[in-house]
Every structure is written in C-alpha cells, then in structure tokens.
Write a structure and sequence with these properties.
single chain, about 425 residues, mainly alpha, 20 helices
Length: about 425
C-alpha cells in the first residue's frame, strides 16, 4: 500500500477515535456538572445521586464481555457506528427523565451504546500501528478522555446557567449524533466481518490464531490486567463522576466557577496522557523491554497519583486541594498509553477486541462502584475525605496488579494461542 495513503488512514483513524472519546466523556461528565442542580431540584440524596451517576456503568460494564467478540466478528466500523448512534440518541432523550429511576434508565441506555468504544479503539489501533508506535497511538486517542471533561465542564456549566440542565444534553447529544454521521462516512475501513492487516511485528500465524473466548480467564496475565484496570478506572471515574459535586458540596463553589475549576485536572490529564504515551515508546526505542517500559510508566504514575489524592483529602486550603487533585489526575493519566497497550501487546489480532473487553469489563466494574461508594461515604460521614482516600487506595491497588501480577510481556506474547497458561513470576 502507498505509504502516504497508509499514513493518511492512520491520521484519520486516530482523529475519529479521538473525537469519539471526547464526546463520550463530555456527556459522561455533564451529568456530574448538573448533579448538584438535580439534587436540589428533585431532592436527591448523595447515595441516590451516586446510583444515578453510575447508571451508564452498569450496562457499559455488563456488555463488555459481549461487545469485544462482536468487534472481532463484525469489524470496527459497523459496531462502533451503531454504538455511537445509540449513545447520541439516548443523550438527546435524557431530559424526558425527571425521576431517579428514569434518569438511571436513560443513562443505562447511554452506557450500552458506549460499551463498544474501548474494544473498537483497541481493534482499530491493532490494525494500523506496530509495537514501537502503539503507546503513542493509544495515548493520542485516549487523550480525548480527559479532553472531554476539560472542555465539557465549562461548556456544560455555561449552558446550565443560561438555559437549564435539559439544554446541556440537547446540545451535547446533537453534537454526538453529528459525530456518528462523520464516523459512518469517513472511517477508512468500511468492511463488515473479520479483518486482518499485515504489520511488521506480527507473523501471519500469530495474527490468525484463535482460542475459545472463555479460555482467556485461564491466564494469570488476564487477571493482572483485569484487576489492575479495576483500580485504575475506580480512581479515574471518581473524578469523572464526583469532582464537580466535591467542589460544590465540600468546597462551596458556585456552578459557573465549578465548571472552570473542575476542568483543570483534566487539562493536566491531557498532558499526562500524551506525555506518558510518548515516554513509553521512547523508553522502548532507547532499549527498554516492552515489560520494563509498560511497568515503569504504570507503577510510577499510580504511586504518584495515590500520594497526591490522599494528601488532597486532608488539606484545608481549597487552592491547594485543587492543585494536588490536578496533578493526581495528570499522574493517573500518565499510565494510560501503557495500560491500554497491554491487551494489544499480548493478544493475537483476531482476539484483541475480546481480551480488551475482559480488561475493560473488570475496569468498569471499578468505575461503576466509584460513584456509588463515594455517595454512601459522603452521606455517612458528611465529608469527601474517606472517598478521596478510597480513590487513592484503588490507584495503588492498580499499580500493584499491573507490576506484580501481570508477568513479563515478552514471555507472554503468543501464550494466548497455546493450551497451557503461563506460570512464570513477574
């Protein structure tokens, strides 16, 4: 294939994936921005609001074990297109909900549409990027996840203050539907069915081998990835779901000021995501093994995020707490490129979506628990201190799982196509 054409397809693929991440996280974070308003208008308790905020996670996490094989079977273009349409329509329709149950249901439909996002992202990048550029590709596409809250927080706060909470979802949902149209028209591989693409670091045999989906759970590395992602997404979704509420309820900020301040950690997250992806690939180019690169980025990022968020729980000055939380999100996102490259590193191409969906299922179980546990802690204690400490503890748990349970990536490559699970130490 012509080199310029292939480069253009890479840029187009990453651009569309990045925009999908941006809109998905703008909409996720928007409910956190309007949460204090809903709590006042409909007299929701913190625990009730926690369940509403978690609504999308239930179907998102529950569908993960299904959508990964669907992506592998039918291809990225059609599965992602359908999912994007579902989450856009459910966002536009959200304002019809005025009770806790109806809000939860509408967010659950939104989560079902979004369940395709991460497996499709992994499968698309698997097709076009080899191991030496993979962490950067993942980092660029995943930089949309903090970009969404970073730009979405002030936008949602401005719309909320001027036109009410319903208008927030009309605007964001409408924009998301336009993205769906762009995806269906411009994604470069408009194929339905199993696909393969020759990459320099993959042999034909490995890319075409398949194993029964359920046998993925026989591997220790699968569990290291699964529980590591659980801790990582618990910590991150604490910020996505409750940071605006923390600033209003604990720090006494106004809605408009919250929209600006709540975006700051996610701007740091953008820098952390891009910087972590670049640094991870740089370490490999400088002679680090894939294992050393991935685990160095993950371990250092998670430990730093833990220290910062727990410290923020106990400081009295609001400016200092916001500063510490900003750096905490930056350090947490420093790990993103490496965390989300591991499934692509290990799985044969025909199983990338399936292994990614297993990792993401457990990850989003943690993400589902974050808003619920936070709501109960705040309601029981009247403070966010315990919730911040819990988020830090889960980040540390993630680092331990990825560094000590996963094992060596080089040793594990190809093991997912054999009949005997790996047993070597990390």
């Amino acid at each position: 294939m012509n080199q310029n054409t292939e480069r253009s397809k890479k840029f187009l693929t990453i651009g569309l994936l990045w925009n999908a991440m941006v809109f998905s996280y703008m909409i996720r974070y928007a409910l956190g921005i309007v949460a204090p308003t809903l709590m006042t208008q409909y007299d929701f308790s913190p625990s009730t609001m926690g369940f509403i905020l978690s609504g999308w996670n239930w179907t998102y996490a529950g569908a993960q074990l299904l959508v990964g094989p669907l992506v592998d079977r039918f291809g990225v273009w059609i599965v992602m297109g359908v999912g994007s349409g579902i989450w856009g329509l459910s966002t536009v329709a959200l304002p019809v909900a005025t009770t806790a149950v109806s809000l939860f249901v509408m967010r659950a439909i939104f989560g079902l549409g979004q369940s395709m996002l991460i497996p499709a992202n992994a499968a698309a990048i698997s097709r076009r990027f080899d191991v030496k550029e993979r962490a950067r590709a993942i980092a660029v596409s995943f930089s949309g996840t903090p970009m969404g809250p970073a730009i979405g927080a002030p936008i949602a706060a401005f719309i909320l203050a001027g036109w009410g909470w319903q208008a927030v979802f009309y605007c964001l949902g409408g924009g998301s539907l336009l993205l769906t149209l762009a995806w269906l028209c411009f994604y470069p591989d408009k194929q339905v069915g199993r696909q393969s693409a020759p990459l320099p670091d993959r042999t034909k045999d490995r890319s075409e081998q398949r194993i029964p989906w359920i046998s993925l759970f026989r591997y220790r590395s699968t569990w290291g990835m699964a529980f590591g992602q659980m801790g990582y997404l618990y910590a991150f979704f604490f910020f996505v779901s409750w940071l605006p509420g923390y600033l209003v309820l604990e720090r006494g900020m106004t809605v408009l000021r919250t929209g600006i301040v709540a975006s700051l950690p996610f701007w740091a997250g953008i820098l952390g995501t891009l910087g972590g992806g670049w640094l991870g690939d740089y370490l490999i180019r400088r002679g680090f093994s894939v294992t050393a690169s991935r685990k160095t980025m993950i371990g250092s990022g998670m430990v730093a995020a833990t220290v910062l968020v727990i410290t923020a729980a106990f400081v009295e000055q609001t400016w200092l707490a916001v500063t510490l939380l900003t750096f905490s999100v930056g350090c947490l996102r420093l790990t993103t490129g490496s965390v989300n490259s591991i499934a692509i590193d290990l799985a044969p191409r025909s199983m990338v979506g399936s292994l990614t969906s297993v990792q993401n299922f457990f990850g989003n179980t943690g993400g589902l628990l974050a808003p619920i546990v936070t709501g109960f802690i705040v309601e029981a204690t009247g403070s966010f201190v315990g919730a911040l400490v819990a988020a830090g503890g889960m980040a540390l748990f993630s680092g331990i799982c990825y560094v000590f349970v996963l094992g060596k990536v080089e040793t594990l490559q190809g093991r997912f196509t054999t009949s005997t699970p790996e047993v070597q130490s990390a």
